[in-house]
């Protein structure tokens, strides 16, 4: 397993729409293992493949609170097939937008259909943090960032800050 470098805003890769996984190959299994390792190293509770520069519809999530009871799930081609009308506000952050948080309103509960690493298609209902995390990571697969759910003023400020930092780091 390898910790891979994270793609950081304003990198245009974050706006790419990820390609579906057509088959569970050794390459996909290695990608999933590396994503889990990278997610824990960051540390974070979720990671989309595009955040390490791979435009594949792969997501890893582990919302368990106990450091000793890691329970990662790999979602291949995840899609939301149902969402509740009830909404919930969560203070979201993102490994690709370090040290910035913003309140995002999303459906409180979702049902997600995805393929497992065994090639099985399953559906899972989620609420709370897991529902928020699934929606956040699936947004990544579609080139959407959590800052896109904020006001234009806040989004513009964040983009300006990270663009300036990227120019400074490149110099």
UniProtKB/TrEMBL annotation:
Alphabetized InterPro entries for the sequence: Peptide_deformylase (IPR023635), Peptide_deformylase_sf (IPR036821)
Record's keyword terms, sorted: Hydrolase, Iron, Metal-binding, Protein biosynthesis
E.C. numbers: 3.5.1.88
Family annotation (NCBIfam families): pept_deformyl, PRK00150.1-3, PRK12846.1-5
Name assigned to this protein: Peptide deformylase
Superkingdom, taxonomy of origin: Bacteria
Active site: 137
Protein species of origin: Methylorubrum thiocyanatum
């Amino acid at each position: 397993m390898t910790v891979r470098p994270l793609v950081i805003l304003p990198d245009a890769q974050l706006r790419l729409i990820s390609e579906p996984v057509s088959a569970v190959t050794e390459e996909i299994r290695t990608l999933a293992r590396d994503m889990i390792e990278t997610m824990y190293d960051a540390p974070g509770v979720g990671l989309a493949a595009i955040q390490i520069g791979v435009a594949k519809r792969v997501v890893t999530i582990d919302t368990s609170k106990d450091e000793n009871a890691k329970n990662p799930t790999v979602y291949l081609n995840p899609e939301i097939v149902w969402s509740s009308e009830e909404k919930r506000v969560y203070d979201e952050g993102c490994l690709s937008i370090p040290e910035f948080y913003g309140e995002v309103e999303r459906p409180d509960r979702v049902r997600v259909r995805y393929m497992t690493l065994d090639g099985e298609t399953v559906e899972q209902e989620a609420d709370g943090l897991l529902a928020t995390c699934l929606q956040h990571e699936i947004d990544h697969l579609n080139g959407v960032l959590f800052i896109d759910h904020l006001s234009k003023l806040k989004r513009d400020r964040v983009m300006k800050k990270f663009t300036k930092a990227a120019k400074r780091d490149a110099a």
